Amino acid sequence: MPNELEATEFSRRWVAAWNARDVAAVLAHFHDDVVFSSPLAAQLFPETGGVVRGKDALRKYWDEGLKRLPGLHFTVEAVYAGIDTVVINYRNHRGQLVNEVLVFDGGLVREGHATYLRQDA
Prior knowledge:
- The protein is of the alpha+beta class.
- It has helices at 4-19, 23-27, 39-44, 55-68, and strands at 30-37, 51-53, 75-81, 85-91, 97-105, 108-116.
- Strand 4 (85-91) and strand 5 form a beta hairpin.
- This is Nuclear transport factor 2 family protein.
- It comes from Catellatospora aurea.
């Protein structure tokens, strides 16, 4: 289970890889059979229903996202450590608050969920 220090260090590596647009470096932290959900995945690949299964499919999704969002940049606002879970609260290139909820298994992410703050809440 990640402790507070490990969660913070993971978030530093995670955001550095994203801001460098290095999908391979981000994916290095994920299991081959990862399951990842995201409203953006539902927009880019409607046939997935927003759920991407497997590292190869996740690579395809993130590569497409980077292609469509050339200004993508994240700033970490807060990091939360739970039982086998890390939540990275960050601000994206549009200034929106987003949470990445990551569930770990054996030191790698087995499951992830991108969640967005509702603007009308």
